[in-house]
Structures are given as C-alpha cells and as structure tokens.
Amino acid sequence: MYYGQLMHQQNMLADVVRTSVYHKAITENLHDFDGASVLDVGTGTGLLAFFAAQAGARKVYAVEHAAPMATLAELLVKGNRMGDVIQVVNGSIEDSDMSERVDVIVSEPIGFLLVHERMLESFIAARDKFLKPGGLMMPTTSDIFVAPFTDDTLFREQSSKAQFWNQSQFYGIDLRPLAAKAAEEYMSQAVVGYFSNDILISRDKATHSVDFRTVTMAQLQTFEIPLRFHINRTALLHGLGCWFDLNFLGSESHVVLSTAPDQTGTHW
C-alpha cells in the first residue's frame, strides 16, 4: 500500500529551507563524505542518501522502517542507477544489521520543537550501534529557544474553541460542568504555526542545547529548560514562543537550519 506515502514525502521535499540546507551541509563538506561509508536513518525517498552519494560516499546504507516507503526508495535508487552505492535496508535501525561501522550518520529525525515524533531516539541508537569512534553526525547539535509572547488574537481563538462546553441545553444535557476543564485543555495545548518577532515581549531567550554526538536516551526523553526573562514592554503575556536551530558541523563548513521567527518558514 503506497497510499499517502508520496503526498507526505512531497510536502517534505518541497520544504525548500529543509532540503537546501541538508544539501548544502553535505555538498560543502566533501572531505567528510568522499570515500566514506554513510548511514541514512529513516531515509524516506532516499534524499539524503542521494546527497551523500553525490558527495562521493563509497557506500550508503539507507535504512527505512516502513516497508512501502522502502520499496519506493528502492525504485528511485534503481531508476537513478545508484544501486552500486546506495543499499536500501528495510527495517528499524534497532533491528538492522550491517557489515561495517560507518564514518557518517545523516538523518532528518526532527519533529516540532525538535523532539516531537520521537525519531531522535533512532538517530541516537544508530550512533551507539553503527558509528565509528570519532565519526560525524549530521545534524551535529541543536538549540531550542523559548521566549514569552503576547497575541490577543490567538488567545481569543483558543478561548472560543472551549465555548462549545458552555451550553446548558445540549440535547437536554448541561455541558457547563466541563467548561473549565475544556478551557484549561485548549489554553494549555501547543499551537503549531508561524509567529512574528513583533509579538515577543522580551529580548531574552531561554535555551536548551543538544549535542547529538554525546546525548543519551534519558537526556532526550526528560529535560528541563529554566525560564528567566526581562520583559521589555507592557503587554499581557499569553504564552511561550518556541523554535529551534539545527547545526551541521562538518570539517569544511558549518551550516545552520533555523526555524526562528525572523527566518523563512519551514514545515516545522
């Protein structure tokens, strides 16, 4: 069953910022990839595997746990006559087996606010199982940023969603006993979308850094970000705006993918 696979992948590939930054990070670090063995974790269509091959990789293991997607990746590899370099491996990284440890691991394991979708665990599992000592992780590090914002429009939008539960005669049932819980739920959930620097009410940012070369599973799954801000203007504080940067630290070039509010929007 291929239903929906290509539509989802098309949305990812069409994210110009994401795709171009990964391409730049790989092709501007040819010294790291030329003649190297590379592992692409969660390859999807095989995009990063192709980039690694274009940069001169000797062998690329493109691991994909979803069988339909792995089949599509194989079609692209064969269609582009790259089968002598790229080997598609269908299975989870935890259950996969390869004949060698690799020089480089590449992956796009990133969800909203970095950690959503829980793909980073597979990235780290691949590092522990298959990366040579001193090998390269791409991306290499990341930084999460948090800042307070004011947005009355968003506040009213979220508040209005909870008004459904203020009905006293819903088919003869009074829903109002759940109104406070509904308001709490709508006002505490994360809202994914773009926002402008203009709504931030502090120049201070709380940060949390992740080094994919050393971070443990436990550190990925549980962490705290201390919050301390100096508010620069009078306004109602409606919430916390969050974003992240990815850093690709190759030996020749350092490339940054930023999802900051003053940068071009991405699918994150």
Task: Describe the overall structure.
The protein is α/β, with parallel strands linked by helices and 268 residues long. It folds into two domains: 5-145 and 200-258, Rossmann fold (3-Layer(aba) Sandwich), CATH 3.40.50; 152-194, no CATH class. Helix content is 31%, strand content 23%. It is built from nine helices and nine strands. It has helices at 5-13, 16-27, 30-33, 47-54, 67-79, 120-130, 152-161, 179-188, 217-221; strands at residues 37-41, 59-64, 86-90, 102-107, 131-138, 141-149, 206-211, 239-249, 254-258. Strands 3-2-1-4-5 form a five-stranded parallel β-sheet, with helices on both faces. It has a four-stranded antiparallel β-sheet with strand order 7-6-8-9. A hairpin with a 4-residue loop joins strand 8 (239-249) and strand 9 (254-258). The longest helix is centred in the first third of the chain and has 13 residues, at 67-79.
In short:
With 268 residues, the chain is of the alpha/beta class. Helix content is 31%, strand content 23%. It is built from 9 helices and 9 strands.
Structural class: alpha/beta
Helix-residue proportion: 25-40%
- How many H/I helices? 9
Mass-distribution shape: globular
How many distinct beta strands? 9
CATH topology of the largest domain: Rossmann fold
Order of helices and strands: HHHEHEHEEHEEHHEHEE
Mean pLDDT: 92
CATH architecture tag of the largest domain = 3-Layer(aba) Sandwich
Find the CATH superfamily of the largest domain.
Vaccinia Virus protein VP39
Major sheet: size, sense and barrel closure?
Answer: 5 strands, parallel
What value does the Rg take, in angstroms?
A: 22 Å
CATH class of the largest domain: Alpha Beta
Distance between the termini: 27 Å
Uncertain stretches of 5 or more adjacent residues? none
